[in-house]
Specification:
The chain is mainly beta and about 180 residues long. Helix content is about 10%, strand content about 45%. It has two domains: about 30 residues, no CATH class; about 150 residues, no CATH class.
């Protein structure tokens, strides 16, 4: 037990000491976080669209239908909520998204996924308030050519004012087109 955890155990009762130890475990000096911060960004017609997220790894675990259950809203990453920022209005597969900041969640399924754009921002990833949903859109499901160890989110330009948002992890690849308005 390190000095910080011994100190917490002396000052904090039972469960609080355990929570403190868990919270500080990933902040150990010299050790990289298990789900490091990541981001993706694209410029389309002079407009910036970006996504900040934490990228978990498989580490020998079953991901889809296991760690990430089907039929339940998923934070789409790890740690803090996944944040979409855009300085222009977007049309994501028919969903009108004004310029601003949003949280992205997904609703994974065995054959169909939904992307959820939520108006609440700055929260921990597991804090989901459906009343704050701007909307949901169907994603196209597929498979990467090889298993993807570390979850990734990518924004790509598809020419003119069009782009694609793609999420890949394990044996799953889901995407949705968007237009910069």
């Amino acid at each position: 037990m390190n000095q910080r955890n011994r100190f917490a155990k002396l000052l904090l009762p039972g469960a609080a000491a355990a929570l403190f130890a868990l919270a500080t475990a990933s902040a150990q000096p010299g050790k990289p976080p298990l789900s490091p911060p990541a981001n993706t960004a694209v410029t389309i017609n002079g407009h910036q669209i970006g996504i900040d997220y934490s990228a978990p790894s498989m580490r020998g675990r079953k991901i889809m239908g296991g760690l990430v259950p089907y039929g339940k809203v998923w934070r789409t990453g790890a740690n803090s909520a996944t944040k979409l920022t855009t300085d222009a209005a977007l049309d994501i597969a028919g969903l009108k998204v004004p310029a601003g900041a949003y949280t992205l969640y997904t609703l994974p399924g065995e054959s169909e996924w939904m992307l959820i754009v939520n108006k609440q921002t700055g929260q921990w990833g597991t804090v989901y308030d459906q009343a704050q949903d701007l909307g949901r859109v169907k994603m196209t499901s597929g498979h990467p050519s090889a298993p993807v160890e570390k979850m990734s989110i990518a924004l790509t330009s598809d020419g003119e004012n069009k782009g694609t948002l793609r999420i890949e992890w394990e044996n799953t690849s889901v995407s949705v087109p968007f237009t910069v308005e």
